[in-house]
Structures are given as structure tokens and as C-alpha cells.
Amino acid sequence: MTSESSKLSDEVEDLDPRRSMVAAIVGPTLTLLALVALWEFLARWSGIPSWLLPAPSAIVDSMIEWRGELTWHSMVTLYEVLVGFALSIVVSIPLAVAVVYSPFLQNTIYPILLALQSTPKVAIAPLLVLWIGFGALPKILVVFLVCFFPIVVATASGLSSVPPALIDLIRSLSATSTQTFIKIRFPTAIPHIFVGLKIAITFAVIGGVIGEFVGSDEGLGYLILISTSQSRTPLAFGALLLLTIMSIVLYYAVEFTERLVVPWAPRN
Amino acid sequence: MAPTGSMLFAAVGDVGARFAINKAQQQGASACIRGHVKSRMLKIKIENLSKIYRSRSGHVSALEDVNLDIVQNEFITLVGPSGCGKSTLLKIIGALIRPSRGTLHYDGKTLLQPTRDVGIVFQEPVLLPWRTALDNVLLPAEILGLDIAASRPRAMELLKLVGLKGFESSYPRELSGGMQQRVALSRALIHDPSVLLMDEPFAALDAMTREELGFELLRIWDTHKKTVIFVTHNIVEAILLADRVVAMSPRPGRIAKIVKVDLPRPRTLDMEFTPEFKGYSDEIRSVIYHGGTVAA
User: Do B171 and A184 make contact, defined as CB atoms within 8 angstroms?
Assistant: First the structure.
């Protein structure tokens, strides 16, 4: 290309978001498909037995074969995750409010929360089974335990993030603390709360599986345990895939809710 | 809403003669007395006011022995370098922080708690991002328990006054910095306070928006008579807006000089190039930077 022709052709920057979205979707999809194809190829031609590393096609076959069981166990896990997550929201947000408004609680509860958060949940799960027995409740409690800390921390920091000038403004109007909370503090905290919720929901599915691993006769975690012990590895992979999908879908559900509730929140 | 019952306490007389006396002000006395004599009521009286902060390294005197009388509907600018205590003084006038010593009187009464007779505008608009421009303006009315149905037309009127007609249902993120600050100004006026406190309200805006808003503020002040106390670090802005410029110097923060500005109103931008303006500006500069104090 001569220097003359490069002078003549103007460089036009493409600002159409649709075109860049296509690029953002097509690239990763193709990469994923390539990886799956490579996996399929290796699993078929490398001589690795299916109970060790099943081919993607074998996983799909077994998911179709066991679709009834997979659906049932998915529903069990989803139930535990959702109830545990909801419980953690109901407990964490008022707790965060209490911590922010009371220096005494801040000094006493925060260390306890931190200690609880630092304890491995895998180690607590067997105790919960010991105390409460089998069934959904101990799993719900494990989900609750892994979820509540990020929500408390995010809510507390959100409630404390009102700009000082805004505090001065409402003080100049002699606002009551109830007015300040309802009109200023809580709405200010909502975007922060959603940050905590998004972190929590990714932990929630993990929490549910931990609970099921420790003692259960249903749920996707149980299904993974039982199928690996019976060398039904393709089914275990199928359950794993469903867990991943569940986690991703739940995350985006929280994000979607955020868009509805806080359209003003800054987004990257 | 202004407590008229306290008129008895208000002193009437020559504005210049009412200045509390300190050494620096005596030097500026000629500038103060010059000009016409206005008979207006004393609105805010600040007496022997000091603010001391305790820090690890000892006591820091943010304000020392400040005396200032502000008459009703006067436009006062507080100007000075960073750390001269001008924002602290403004917050004390708003009763948002307590002085360590001295008293603050509104209409002759000692003020200890914030009063609804005050509207405040800060450097940042601090609008609520989940509320429209109109609902942001209505916030003080809600907090004060005013009749919202009655306040709504007033809020619309105020937004029109600041040039935001048609933007009532816009959200802050859809407005420019200057427009957001106009909303903040409307919000400060919604409950019809008689005192407007402004803490470097245009400092975060670009120079042109800043000048534009300054003149709009003067227009609003002219039609909706308010007592305005306006903090700035911009000497030109301070002179162009004010009836009197209170020049402050740092460490400790105190009033170095009070300069009465006798430029005719309405003020215009080209006044900046008159000899009188230069005289005021030199006077203020010399006291602010007196003693080689480095302005931050």
C-alpha cells in the first residue's frame, strides 16, 4: 500500500454495538466447540477408558438415558440452594443493618462472623448432619452458611457508603434516622447488596453439593457420588454439567434482577 | 417561613459600621464605609467564633476568633486558600458542626441545631441516582413533611427557573455536571429558605459553565431575595458575585479582611477588566497571601 492510498482511505471506527457483540459471542463459542471436539477426539482415539474420561457424546447419551433422574435430583439441589440463599438474604440484611447502626454489635458480632466464615464449611457439614439428620435442612443450612457472609459484608459497606455531603444535606433538614434509612441509606446500599448477592449465589451451589456429599440420598451431589462409585462416569459428568449450568443461570438471574431493581447502578 | 417575630432583635443601620472590629478589618474600613448606606436587618451574627480540632500531633486551630455580621438578603462570598477554614465556617453557619467557642445567631436567636431556614449546595451535586430531577428537588420537602402535592408545582417552577424545563423526569445520569448542579440548586430552594449556603458549588464545573451558573445564581438571588453565603477559592468569582467578600487566611483560619464590592448590579463579565475590580482583586490577593503563606 502506498502512502498516498493510505491518506485517501479514512479510518472509520465501528461503533455499532451489535457487530462487537457478534464478535464477543462467535469467538468464545467457536473456541468452546473446538475444545469439545478435541476432547471427543482424545477420548475416542487415545484408548482412555470411558469410566475414566468419557467422551462428550457418551455424556450426552447418558444424560438422555437418565433424564428423569437428572431432572429430579436437579430439582432437589435447586430447592436447597434457593431456600438456603433466600434464608441468607433474610438473615444477612437485617444483621448488616444492626451492625452498621450499633457500634457494640459491630465490635461483638463481626469477630464471630469472621470466625464462622473462616471455619471450613466442609468440616461443619457433618456436624449439621449429626445434629439435624438427613433431609433438606442440613443442606439448606450449609448453603446459608456459605452465602450469608458476603451479603452481610456487602450490605454493611453499602449502608456506610453514603457521600458525606449527602449526610450533611439531610442533617441540615433535621431528618430522622428512619427517614435517612429509608430515603437515603438503604437505596444507596442496594447496588452494593447485589455485589454480595452475586458472590453468594456462586457459592450457594457449591454449598448445596457439599451438604449432599456429606450425607444425602438425593440431589446432584449425591448423584455424582453414587455414579462415580458405580463407574457410571458419563452420568457423573452429566450431573456436573447440570450443576455448572445451574450456577451460571442463577448468577445471571441475580444480575437480571439487579438490572430491574437498580437500573441506576454503575456497570462495567 | 422566616421567623419575623425576631425582627426586634435585628439591628438596623449602616452595614459598614456593623462590622465586628479586628485589626485586619480596620485596615479595610475605608473600603467598607465607601458607598451607599443600606438599612437592612441583621440576619446572621457570628461572634468570637473559634473551632479547634484535636489531633494526635496536638490542637489544630481551624478557625480563630471570627466575627461577622451578615444582613438580610446580602450576598457574601468567603474566599481563601485551602485550609483557611472557609468550608468549616460555612458548616458552622449551617449548624452542621459546633464551634469550639463563640456563638451563632439567626435573627437574634442563638442557633444550636440545623434550621429549615437554610438551603445548602455542595461542590458535588449529590443527587439521588434513583430519583428523577423533579423527585430530587422534592427530597427536602418530603423530609420536612411539607405537602408534596403543593410542592410539586413549586419544584417544576424552580427547575424552569434554573433552565431545566423539560428535564423534570430525567435521571441524574442523563444530565451533565452543570445540569446536575442546577438540580441541586433547585433542591436547596424547594422549602423556600431565607439563607442559602453554598460550598464551592461551581468548583467542579468547567470554566464556561461556571460563569454561566454564577450569573444565573445572581439572577435567582435578585428575584427570590435570599441571604447567600458562598464559599469559593476563585477570587474573580468571589468579587463578581458578592456584596462583600470575606477574605480568609490560613493557619489559623481567620478573617483577614472584608471587602465591600461596590460594582453596580446586574453584574457583567466585562466588569472584571475595570480598575475598580482590579483594586478589589489586588486588595484580596494581598491579604490572602500576606506573609508569603503558600496557598495549596
Answer: no
